[in-house]
Amino acid sequence: MTITTRIDAITSIADPYRSDVLPAPKSVKIELTGRCNFACSFCARSMRLRDQKDMDRALFERLLPDMRAAGVEELGLFYLGESFMVDWLEDAIRYAKHEVGFPYVFLTTNGSLAKPDRVEACMAAGLDSLKFSLNYADADQFKSIARVKKSLYKALLDNIRSARARRDAGGHATGLYASYIMYDGEQGERMQQVVEDVRPYLDEVYALPLYNQAAFIEGQNWVFTAGNRGRYANLRDPLPCWAVFTEGHITWDGKLSACCFDHDGRFHMGDLTTTPFMEAWNSERFRKLRRAHLAKDVKGTVCEACVAYN
User: Fold this and answer.
1) What phi-psi label fits residue 126: left (phi over 0), alpha (psi between -120 and 50 degrees) or beta?
2) What one-character DSSP code corresponds to residue 127?
3) Mean pLDDT across the chain, nearest whole number?
4) Residue 26, by phi and psi: left (phi above 0), alpha (psi -120 to 50) or beta?
């Protein structure tokens, strides 16, 4: 199954998930760390609106069996931070895949720290999918947007090529992918060149729209898509938002969030340090928010500020 097929299955909101009380989500992303070595201007994480620390390993190992028993099948070992900053990432993959038994374990990275030895260790540990976020047309733009030194751009591209070489040499089953922001005009044309340069090293490359990050990003000369509408080639309706229904999001400190871009904690629906996963997933706070989305009227909810609904 391709990565875009999996993405589309999550963003489609199948009939069993068009309710306020839901079965377990098929997919959950868990934040091993809230930290990132980039400060991208299109990402509100750099605004530091909530604490950004690493997840307690004991909490991680307690949460996973609960989710798997509930029926979660796909586990993303990232959320809003960069997981290659965590020194036990490989152990986390091995635990999720081989001890807890998640059928599909995936990871998205900015690529700068995905060095060959660590990537191969992740592959050997059982990682099913590694996706690189490739959102910069060249080193100068990379420095301007990611707000880090230009040399990390070359490292990102080198790490994509090395990942393919290590996978092929080691016979690993990990899928290798990249996503990029579908900018318009001249920027879109510039992005196509770097996309074509890396395409031979990847199993699939796909475009994403420029998200408004739950309306946290404002005042820039960019045109945002409405809400989180999935991938560019298969955009979903902004209401109801799939993230409220089909995918769980867990912060480093164990909060279950209703949003892909919960940068300040306003979307927290339950505390998994004290509450079982399914109880939080179907908490009254979460159910009330889902009812508003199903009615396509989110006025007065935490989703109201998103420009998709203005």
Assistant:
1) left
2) -
3) 90
4) alpha
Note the pLDDT tens digit of each residue in 143-172: 888 888 999 999 999 999 999 999 999 999
Confidence at residue 214, expressed as pLDDT on a 0 to 100 scale: 46
Q: Which helix (H) or strand (E) holds 153?
A: helix 151-170
Specify the length of the chain in residues. 310
Distance CA 310, CA 305 (A): 7
CA 284 to chain centre: 25
Q: Is 190 exposed, middle or buried (0-12, 13-18, 19+ CB in 10 A)?
A: middle
CA–CA distance, 172 with 165 (Å, rounded to integer): 10
Name the DSSP class of 161: H
Q: What pLDDT does 40 receive? A: 76
Residue 254's CB: how many other CB atoms inside 10 A? 22
Q: What is the pLDDT of residues 96-110, one digit of tens each?
A: 999 999 999 999 999
259 half-sphere exposure, CB direction, 13 A CA radius: 25
Listed in sequence order, the residues at least 6 apart from 274 whose beta carbon sits closer than 8 Å to its beta carbon are none
- The secondary structure element, H or E, covering residue 290 is helix 284-294
The alpha carbon of 308 is separated from its chain's Cα centroid by a whole number of angstroms, namely: 20
The distance between the two most distant Cα atoms of the chain, rounded to a whole number of Å, is 55
Band of the pLDDT at 48, cuts 50, 70, 90? Answer: low
What is the Cα–Cα distance from 171 to 294, expressed in whole angstroms?
A: 45
Alpha-carbon gap, residue 270 to 212, rounded angstroms: 24
> Cβ distance 36 to 53 under 8 Å?
no
Residue 308 pLDDT exceeds 70: no
Cβ(64)–Cβ(75) under 8 Å?
Answer: yes
Distance in angstroms (rounded) separating the CA atoms of residues 240 and 251: 23
User: Structure pTM?
Assistant: 0.93
